[in-house]
Amino acid sequence: xxxxxxxxxxxxxxxxxxxxxxxxxxxxxxxxxxxxxxxxxxxxxxxxxxxxxxxxxxxxxxxxxxxxxxxxxxxxxxxxxxxxxxxxxxxxxxxxxxxxxxxxxxxxxxxxxxxxxxxxxxxxxxxxxxxxxxxxxxxxxxxxxxxxxxxxxxxxxxxxxxxx
Length: 164
Description:
This protein is α/β, with parallel strands linked by helices and 164 residues long. It is built from six helices and five strands, in the order αβαβαβαβαβα. The protein has one domain (18-163): Rossmann fold.
């Protein structure tokens, strides 16, 4: 197992690729917790946005396979009084339209109804790697295991590009 992970790291680095993770999360303490579980020399970058509006814009703008994984909270910050509020459900709708279905999704919301609704919707929309773990149940091991899935799928994507 160690050799496989090492080879994976080298493959990503040889392509100067970061493991880009979109974190849709409004709670800075959760952001801090997730980042504290990453090694100091990691090639993983968690890009956090606290609002659904910004997340949706990013998903619409970026190529479908731009993100190696997406972490989704349900209850998000309001962007401004001038624009309609967008929650995790709205982000999930945008993900279904604009994101590669092989992209691993981690629904870490503490909202039981919202997280269940979003997880089920994403699965029924064709996403093949949806994990639902409320933040209260999240551990470093669970998070790093999910990142390993992200890494494996990212490497598969790179290898497919090399074959073309």
